[in-house]
Write a structure and sequence with these properties.
The structure is a single chain. This protein has 114 residues and is an all-beta fold. It has one domain. The protein contains no helices and six strands. The two termini are 13 Å apart.
Length: 114
């Protein structure tokens, strides 16, 4: 039973970039995942933030921090890309989905009780 193996509340994020691409690797230990039923990985999933996800918030202007891009991906491979404008309270498309590539993997770890 997983409750015998406490999970540290810690997420590890690694980044790399090139002139054309930005890469993120998330390592997120979970004792139990809260996943969306019937996931669809071919299109964006609105409301994904209600489930377990890894999120990235990227802004391009430190003088205007209320406008930024938000990227979310779940362990199931469901995702969403959105633009946030907290001044006008508008949410719009992030970047063209054709330019966004993602991959998710869930690794199960087992231990022995002492």
């Amino acid at each position: 039973m997983m409750e015998n193996f406490p999970v540290r509340a810690r997420t590890e994020v690694r980044t790399r970039w090139t002139a054309q691409n930005l890469y993120f690797l998330f390592v997120c230990p979970y004792a139990q995942l809260n996943l969306r039923p019937n996931p669809k990985t071919s299109t964006e999933t609105y409301g994904l933030w209600n489930w377990d996800v890894a999120e990235v918030f990227i802004g391009a202007d430190f003088k205007d921090v209320k406008r930024y891009k938000e990227f979310e991906i779940s362990p199931q491979g469901t995702w969403i890309l959105i633009s946030i404008n907290r001044i006008t309270r508008k949410v719009g498309p992030g970047i063209p989905a054709s330019r966004f590539r993602h991959e998710s993997t869930v690794l199960l770890a087992f231990g022995t009780a002492q």
